[in-house]
Design goal:
- The chain has 6 helices and 2 strands, in the order ααααββαα.
- It has about 140 residues and is mainly α.
- It has a two-stranded antiparallel ribbon.
- Strand 1 and strand 2 form a beta hairpin.
Length: about 140
């Protein structure tokens, strides 16, 4: 009897594989033991802080991660000297997240590794297959929202 395939299980399995591969890469000493998610968060700040202030809630929303998880990760990044949280003048409750020079240098190396990783993920997919995959993933995302 053929086993029924479940989309959610397959997506979760692939997600775990991606996370493990990235964590394996970034566990090398030159990446200071940061997780793939911590590097992704810094990359998000790096990309968006040029145009506007970036806050914890922006990271939570972008990555679909709980507040408590993001708090722990940001605390760790702050302790390691990769980010600073700076109060903003227009709201005493808010602190924008800013990368340090140390983080910006690291992110240049991280970007190179991530580019190589994406090339590996897409290695045997045609342009049309990638477009179809993005389309289908978008539909799944809509179903969950």
């Amino acid at each position: 009897m053929q086993e029924k395939k479940a989309i959610g299980f397959e997506l979760k399995s692939i997600s775990n594989m991606i996370r493990r591969k990235l964590d394996e890469t970034f566990s090398l000493p030159e990446f200071d033991g940061l997780t793939g998610m911590q590097n992704a968060m810094m990359g998000f700040v790096m990309d968006h802080a040029k145009d506007r202030d970036v806050f914890q809630r922006d990271i939570e929303k972008h990555f679909g991660v709980r507040r408590s998880t993001v708090t722990i990760m940001l605390n760790n990044l702050e302790q390691k000297g990769y980010i600073c949280r700076i109060p903003v003048s227009y709201d005493a409750r808010l602190k924008k997240i800013v990368l340090t020079e140390k983080a910006e240098r690291l992110q240049q190396r991280v970007r190179g590794e991530i580019d190589l990783f994406h090339e590996k993920l897409e290695e045997h997919l045609t342009y049309e297959e990638k477009e179809q995959l993005f389309y289908l993933l978008g539909k799944i995302r809509q179903n969950l929202e």
